[in-house]
Amino acid sequence: MSIEKSSLQAARSAYQPKLPKALQGPVKASEGAPTQSVGNQSEINGLFPNTYGMPMVEFVPASTENVVDFNIGVILSGGQAPGGHNVISGLFDGLKAINPGGKLYGFLMGPGGLVDHKYIELTSSIIDEYRNTGGFDIIGSGRTKLEETDQFESGIKILRELGIKALVIIGGDDSNTNACVLAEYYAAKNYGVQVIGCPKTIDGDLKNEQIETSFGFDTATKTYAELIGNIERDCNSARKYWQFSKRMGRSASHVARECALLTQPVVCLISEEVEASGQSLDQVVSYIADIVAKRAAAGKNFGTVLIPEGIIEFIPSIKRLIAELNDVLATEEAKTVAREDQIEYVKAHLSAENLAQFNSLPIDVACQLALDRDPHGNVQVSLIETEKLLSRMVAAKLAEWKKDGRYTGKFAAQHHFFGYEGRCATPSNFDADYCYSLGYNATKLIAAGKTGYMSIIKNTTAPANEWIAGGVPITMMMNLEKRSGKMKPVIRKALVETDGKPFKFFAANREKWAVEDCYVYPGPIQYWGPSEVCDLPTRTLQLEQSK
Ligand code: FBP
Q1: CA distances (Å), origin 452, targets 51, 289, 293, 492
Q2: Cβ neighbourhood burial of 276 (10 Å; 0-12, 13-18, 19+)
Q3: What is the pLDDT of residues 156-192, one digit of tens each?
Q4: Residues lining ligand 1, CB < 6 A?
Q5: Contacts with 55 (C-beta within 8 Å, 6 or more apart), sequence order
Q6: Per-residue pLDDT for 73 more than 70?
Q7: Whose CA is nearest to atom 6 of ligand 1?
Q8: Average pLDDT score, the chain
């Protein structure tokens, strides 16, 4: 198979990703003390008796390494994130380094490929076509939730048939929760198949003490920042539009905040702050309208507004509404209601307070909240046009203020949603190196006999040579949360911390950015050139790890 390549792609395929020094030769695993889950320790221990409490692992150089004979299976799960192909090429090269005869199989279109026995063998000619490219198209991705015994049993059949010793699931918090459940099941049954996770998501919300960043966040935010910078410059040139743009990122505002740190827009909302300060929708709208009015008074009828896609879930009254909707929709009775009758059904089952909130929303937004959930029970916030909702409400507020002379400007808005544009971008040098290292490191975890671990790389603001490679037990990141009406073990999502250094830096500067036009135009990702141009990690990581 040969794919037509652009000149950038052709040049990029020759890039050799950097590995941490510890992974450049034979390794041994150095183990820490037993671990605990981040919450609900006794319940998580009870649910994962075979994979709970395992130690942290760090790989250190060794003089020799045993050659272990094994094949690996790999799954790409959930939304695309730049660098997925490099995780797979790292896995391939890591496998061949330990076991030259070993085979790598890719299950097609996500976890469903394992259940339905759809796979291909990933040979060196296939891998070479995809090195350092964006996208997940090497094997495709999907969102099938692995939670039923039938699925696990169907999976083991094909894993045995292909002689696969370990399955690597590349995914976000929900997919790695799946990985953990599968690891526990196979361990409990003594099936002899290991399961290893890899931290993926552009959203940046799979992150904690052990996982410094999820892969893809770096490239996606740099891609959006380029687009936002272009829009800022357009805005600053024509001086006639307010540009409202929504960022992907699900519930967390990491993507919006990182983009704000890179581009210094006039306004950037942070959902977690909106919730912490208990703001109503009207207060959020007034906050934006107030800045529009101030700028209008200075003759500036233009500006940029960044909106995190999940903001609507964080407005306390809407959060309460969503929580009740989740419960109403999770009942057996609700599942039998025809789609065209669902809105009426939902309305009939909401409390008076939540019904009033529901009725106050524009019908398209209300329908989106009431109807569609992804397979993990999440509201599909990417489908809600919050940028339009907010700009409409700001326009209405300004029209009111015009009546009493509080506002005298002109308000014309343009709308954008940057999400899919960044998920398959060619990985930045950071993501190319980070992802390759995550994949390579996963083979070391497999060779060390680990299961229920996530591959991790730390010290990521240092040069790649100094990165630290190892593994974290997935149970360590878990707690119980309500999903589809039931308490379930899940990896705790990382939201923006309003007392963290990146948020504090943003908060300390935003008033100035609001009035003084401090736009920064980051331009496109650079792959060659001075290190300070092409190897920089995110501003979030730099601020978090600054002393
Ligand atoms: P993951 O959580 O699977 O990494 O997905 C990230 C994401 O891009 C979100 O930012 C977005 O809300 C969602 O996927 C969109 O989902 P879909 O690709 O199914 O439209």
Answers
A1: 6, 49, 54, 16
A2: middle
A3: 999 999 999 999 999 999 999 999 999 999 999 999 9
A4: 78-79, 81, 172, 201-203, 248-250, 309, 381-382, 419, 423
A5: 31, 32, 33, 34, 35, 473
A6: yes
A7: 79
A8: 94
